[in-house]
Amino acid sequence: MKNKLSHFAIPYVIWMALFVVVPIIMVVLYAFSAAGGGFTLANFARMGTYAVVFLRSFKLALIATAVCLLIGYPVSYMMSKEGPQFQRLAMVLIMLPMWMNFLLRTYSWMSILENNGLLNQLFQKIGLIALYNQVFGTDLQYFRLINTQGAVVLGMVYNYLPFMILPIYSVIIKLDRSLIEAARDLGANTFNVFRRVILPLSLPGVLSGITMVFVPSVSTFAISKMLGGGTEMMLGDLIEQQFLGGAYNPQLGAAISLVMMVIVVVCMWVMNRFGEGEEQAVMM
Amino acid sequence: MKKKNNSLLNRLFMALVFVFLYAPIVLLIVFSFNAGNSNTVWKGFSLDWYAKLLHNRLIMQSVYTTLLVSLLATVIATVAGTFAAIGFYAMRRKLRDPLMTINNIPMMNADIVTGVSLCLFFVAFFGLWGDFASWFNGMQHLVRLPTRLTMGFGTLLIAHICFNIPYVILSVGPKLRQMDKNLVDAAMDLGCTWMQAFRKVILPEIKPGIVSGALTAFTMSIDDFVISYFTAGSSASTLAMTIYGMTKKRVTPEINAISTLLFVTVLVLLAIVNIREARQERRRSAELHRV
Questions:
Q1: DSSP one-letter string for A111-141
Q2: Taking a C-beta distance cutoff of 8 angstroms, is the pair B228, B159 a contact?
Q3: pLDDT at residue number A266
Q4: How many CA atoms lie within 13 A of A133 on its CB side?
Q5: Cα nearest neighbour of B119 on chain A
Q6: Gap from A158 CA to chain B (nearest CA, Å)
Q7: What's the whole-model pTM score?
Q8: A282 — pLDDT class (breaks 50, 70, 90)
Q9: Which of B116, B169, B234 to mutate to test the interface with A (most CBs of A within 10 A)?
């Protein structure tokens, strides 16, 4: 019986071979070949010239991930302490923005952060800009918000925060309540219960949250282009340029993609080392 | 007293996070009713942009493409993913684990890498196909195969199915594992064919997983930009791609109007689903109490 059911997977296995495995093999092949064909390592050597882009991408993605964790963990923890009805509503509210394409939301941030955008209008109204000018002796008409690295980080945090909250929340909510009660009975105060019991047990969720925020952040290209104004080029922009942009060089693009894949594999390997159950966490 | 204070602070923090999440969306909605064509200066209420939206071929066409590709991909991925999940479930562990790893690749990989790899694949495939088709056409004159294929709606759809199926499998899989294994065997012992066992025993058990998988798949399709961007070619354009093209020049406020319409649609759908679920739950608990 069971064997017969396993035949159900055959079409999908063929599909995966064709549309998952073969494309990845193609990336590897391209990464190691020269423009005219033949094996070469030159693509990887050329990446050295883009070290600035690599460093910037890692820096911004790490900052965004840290901020997401600092906001996401408390939110998940507080949510888990509320009543079931509140939790359900909060979950819907966190998922809901994702139904609006992330480009639409990022576009909206553009008009908030513009030089004469809503935030600068607000600062002007409450006299913050005047105050700043007085204190620092400057002559600013507005604060420079858009086209900065800060704006790019903001865009990442805004777009990927739900990916941090969902896995952490789903781990915390499944924690064995009796462990917390036991710790309390044994004399631990709230802080110690959190530090000694809840935090270590929620680590799988934290790790999967970190991966789910870091990977898209380090590889983003639309956000950096829209909020960074093209001046803050990131790894994603670099890859995009090699395929669809002016600097057409698919071999180099494939090599950078391969590096990105290695990053993902390392992230997954770290995640897998920290115990079972993260599969559910990823799924929320 | 102290405890009360603490929870008030917690709620304030959460409220701030929700304000952060919804401020840009509220902004889009408010300015979709703006009489002026700016997203920063309010010039009075009007419905102009909604009227103009209906005549904007570019936007309407891309909305249509987005919805069509998302719906088709969701339906196909849900069916295929459910069958695949059942197949994986029935496999021996040794076979299943490596296959599940491959299955997780499109989900864990950076979107841009998935997009790029599919793009390379399609281009290479079309090249091979071109050679084959011209050889085939030269061999005989009965059937003429097209020699030049390009990326378009078809490749876009394949890409969406590709990244949707893993989400369906991941939400159906746990439901299968929770199911009592003996149920299927019992059904078969009682004379069900395996098709009947599938329809009458397995399907009802895993239905919640299928529904949530389909919902996740649809969300991912609607939200996707990067993979579409690399696989749609120049003939098909989703809403996200259209907006991205506009941000290089000028974004027309019709975008605000279409965003609002889409958001309200989702809101209404979710409200209906949630109210129905709540009602069912209440009925179920009422029945339990009666018993």
A1: HHHSTTSHHHHHHHHTTHHHHHHHHHT---S
A2: yes
A3: 87
A4: 11
A5: A23
A6: 7
A7: 0.88
A8: very low
A9: B116
| Dihedral sign from CA coordinates of A132, A134, A136, A141 | positive
Interface contacts (A, B; CB < 8 Å): 224
Q: Which of B11, B109, B116 sits opposite A243 (nearest CB)?
A: B116
- Chain A residues touching residue B174 (CB < 8 angstroms): 280, 283
CATH code for the domain of B221: 1.10.3720.10
Q: Please tell me the distance from the alpha carbon of residue B147 to that of residue B126, in angstroms, as a whole number.
A: 9
> How many domains does chain B divide into?
1
Q: What is the ipTM of this complex?
A: 0.87
Whether residue B194 lies within 8 A of chain A, CB to CB, comes out as: yes
Q: What is the pLDDT of residue A63?
A: 97
Q: List the single residue in B24, B174, B225 with the smallest CB-CB distance to A101.
A: B225
Mean pLDDT throughout B172-183? 88
Q: Is residue B119 one of the residues assigned to a domain?
A: yes
CA distance A68 to A87: 20
Domain assignment of residue B219, given as a range: 57-251
Residue B5: what pLDDT?
Answer: 58
Q: Nearest chain B Cα to A27, which residue? A: B117
Report percent pLDDT > 90 for chain A. 40
Asked whether residue B184 is domain-assigned, the answer is: yes
**Residues 54 to 113 of A: which have CB under 8 A from any B CB?**
71, 74-75, 78-79, 81, 88, 90, 92-105, 107-112
Distances (CA, A) of B275 to A84, A91, B169: 15, 15, 27
The SS3 of residue A39 is strand
Catalogue all structural domains in chain A, each as residue range(s) with its CATH number.
51-241+263-283 (1.10.3720.10)
Cβ contact B230–A23 (<8 Å):
no
Residue B187, in any domain of the structure: yes
What does the pLDDT look like over A11-33, one tens digit per residue? 999 999 999 999 999 999 999 99
Judge whether B112 lies within some domain: yes
Q: What percent of chain B has pLDDT over 70?
A: 97
